[in-house]
Amino acid sequence: MTLDKKLYTLKYSPDTESHLNPNQEQCKLCENRNCTYICPAGVYEWNEDEQKLIINYENCLECGACRIACEKKAIDWKYPKGTKGVTFKQG
Amino acid sequence: MQNKNNKTNVIVVGAGPAGISCAITLAKAGKEVVLIERGMFSGSKNVFGGAIYTQPTKEIFPNFETEAPVERRNIAHNFMILGEKDSTTISYRNDGNESYSVIRGKFDRWAAEEAKKAGVILVEQTVVRSLIKNGTTVVGVKTELEDYYADIVILADGVNSLLAKQIGLRKEIETKDVALSVKEVIKLDKDIINQRFGVKDDEGVIGEIFGGPMLGLLGLGFMYTNKDSVTIGLGITLNDLVENKCKPYEYLEKLKQHPTIAPLLEGGTLKEYSAHLIPEGGYKKIPKLCDNGVMIVGDAAMLVNNLHWEGTNLAMISGKLAAETAICAFNKNDFSRKILSDYERKLKESFIIKDLKTYRNLMDIAHQRKKAFMGYYLKKINSFFEMFTTVNSIPKKEGYHKFIKSIFTDRKIFELFKDFWAIIKLIWSILI
Q1: Which residues lie closer than 8 Å to B420 by C-beta, 6 or more apart?
Q2: Which domains are seen in chain B, by residue range?
Q3: Closest chain A C-alpha to B161 CA, distance in angstroms
Q4: What is the spatial distance between Cα B80 and Cα B427, in angstroms, rounded to a whole number?
Q5: A80: which DSSP letter?
């Protein structure tokens, strides 16, 4: 089963602005970009052409793994606003 | 908030098992408690494996077995040791009521309602962004909308506990101190679950899964039966995910396809996918548990006994002990660290810190020798049973000799000796 299909089972109330804000300058210098594979929701994608991290914050499961796994400690990671983000019904 | 200056007795941040248990204990003692939850409803941001434990849960909710939305009463544990394709399962069955599978979205919501009935003021959909300090004392919380003040603030804000970090009670979490867990709740007919797991209605089975796609990694899988769904998931140390550059959900897909697991889930449809961090730093990574005006409970305090799949019980009881400490502090009208450190003493005298201390060396050894204990020996268990059950007209003695020889040829003798020594050291530290 693809990740998209998994994420499709979740209820989200996305905010209009991202609660995940990496320091893109640091991302350019980052060797491994751990966030691009450890994230259980595939939130982070590296765009080689634009030399930029794309952040699909609206898919975030709010686990916090990216913040800890980031080698540069460059992710400004906040919880989404009170009415926003993911809702787990079966957790 | 009854006082005009937004001041209450106690603010509890986070309506999970720790926060709710803490709040309800305080409210029953007549304290004014505000329980702040960031989710749409209590439980909506919470994820766990799947079981709550009867005895500790009863300490907080004496009638939960008949009143709470529980799924199934667990009557069996299946310890499943998976090879690449084969598996060995040890099943322990006992028709007791040690634990129940629950769905957090339902159970926590019920528990929060119980807290409200006891007088807790529940404020949902509100994120606490920071703590308010007066000198070295925590005196309140800052939310997006307004500031709330209290004599004591209790942090039950989960594994990430940004608040504990903000006030310097704990350091930044390292990748080896958390496991990233992904899980799926898969819908299946009640009768099919009963048939596949060999249980009656309302009886459940817990699966503790070793190896399979996680061979050689510091990771474990879990399976729980709910009323009309089965939970399957795994947790792998974040360190291992980073080192191996792997996507956690791909491991879960592989686990679901393992020949031992797949038939149990066949025909099911995915109800919900989720992910969460599990604090696994153990005894050595417990943060400072209190300071002037503040205490930390549950996952936020790293209180998880991963070897025994225990977390919610440590959360609930730590919440209760923090509440009892707070009640004493009100009697003395002193909320200083000196008085609140009684919480630390209570935790140390309870099973919580005693158990974590028992396993203080477990994670270090597990990290050092994971390829052996989470890989090599698991495979050997399966190859022993493969040898034992094979009927191939070769004399059994040859089979035994070949198996014993393989133990010494597949792994260097020096490494075997180191494994043995690590086990002796671990057992020594657990028992002595």
Answers
A1: none
A2: 7-70+102-171+285-358 (3.50.50.60), 176-279 (3.30.9.90), 362-431 (no CATH)
A3: 10
A4: 22
A5: P
Task: Please give the structure tokens belonging to residue B364.
Answer: 């270090």
Q: Is A41 on the interface with B (CB under 8 A)?
A: yes
- Establish whether this prediction's ipTM goes over 0.85: yes
Q: Tell me the per-residue pLDDT of B296-306, one tens digit each, with 9 for 90 and over.
A: 999 999 999 99
Answer yes or no: do B241 and A89 touch at CB < 8 A: no
What average pLDDT does this structure show over B187-210? 97
Q: If you search the block for the tokens 């998209």, which residue do you land on?
A: A4
Mean pLDDT of the region B55-77: 97
Alpha-carbon gap, residue B202 to B194, rounded angstroms: 9
* Residue among B347, B360, B322 at smallest CA distance from B17: B322
Return d(Cα A12, Cα A58) in angstroms, integer.
7
**Considering the entire predicted model, what is its pTM?**
0.96
Cα B225 off chain centre by: 17
B273: nearest CB among A6, A34, A38: A6
A25 touches chain B (CB under 8 A): no
Q: Does the distance separating the beta carbons of A69 and B175 come in below 8 Å? A: yes
The closest alpha carbon to B227, from B363, B106, B114, belongs to B106
Q: Which CATH code fits A3-78?
A: 3.30.70.20
Which candidate, B323, B312, B318, B308, places its Cα nearest to that of B353? Answer: B318
Neighbours of B324 (CB within 10 A): 17
Q: Give the SS3 label for residue A19.
A: coil
Burial of B87 (0-12, 13-18, 19+ CB in 10 A): buried
Pull the structure tokens for residue B38. Answer: 């960031």
Residue type, B145: L
Read off the tokens for B273: 């996918």
Best CA proximity match to B279, nearest among B252, B323, B318, B230:
B318
Cβ–Cβ < 8 Å for B356, B310:
no
CA dihedral B236, B242, B246, B252 (to 10 degrees): 10
